[in-house]
Design brief:
- By secondary structure, this protein is mainly alpha-helical.
- Helix content is 41%, strand content 7%.
- The chain has a single domain, classed as Response regulator (Rossmann fold).
- The longest helix has 24 residues.
- Belongs to the low molecular weight phosphotyrosine protein phosphatase family.
- Pfam families: LMWPc (PF01451).
Length: 151
């Protein structure tokens, strides 16, 4: 999961997908991580508002720490999901040709929305964080179903 600073959207998606994987007892089979396109917040915990809203729904993000996308991530991960088009464009710019098929918009896995991008809640209020969670929960279900179909 990739967003800008790796403190709001991508760690929320990371935490929700980890939760679903744990519920399905697949933690030894599926690895999840998140990163940012920028290094603004490397080493920091997710935004306190992201953590608060996620925890209300049963997702603990407190152990996650922001990191920046690395060149080795393209080879290491089977699926690299961008939270919006600017992230996807960034990833495409730095991704080796042989790994381009791994890059997708995160919301391409949703079943309940026509939105294509996860909006950045950083400068908004509580409703923005709740909306991100709604989108993330929907897309994470789709991501997990897609992974299970290809196994």
């Amino acid at each position: 999961m990739v967003c800008t600073g790796n403190i709001c959207r991508s760690p929320t998606a990371d935490g929700v997908l980890r939760h679903l994987i744990t519920e399905q007892r697949l933690t030894n089979q599926i690895e999840v991580d998140s990163a940012g396109t920028q290094s603004y917040h490397v080493g920091e915990a997710p935004d306190r508002r992201s953590q608060k809203h996620a925890l209300r729904r049963g997702y603990d993000l407190s152990n996650l720490r922001a990191r920046q996308m690395k060149s080795t991530d393209y080879a290491e991960y089977d699926l690299i999901l961008a939270m919006d088009r600017s992230h996807l464009n960034y990833l495409k710019q730095y991704c080796p040709v042989e790994y381009q098929e791994k890059l997708k918009l995160f919301l391409s896995f949703t079943a309940q929305t026509t939105e294509q991008e996860v909006p950045d809640p950083y400068y908004g209020g509580d409703q923005g964080f709740e909306h991100v969670l709604d989108l993330v929960e929907d897309a994470c279900q789709g991501v997990l179903q897609s992974i299970l179909k290809t196994r």
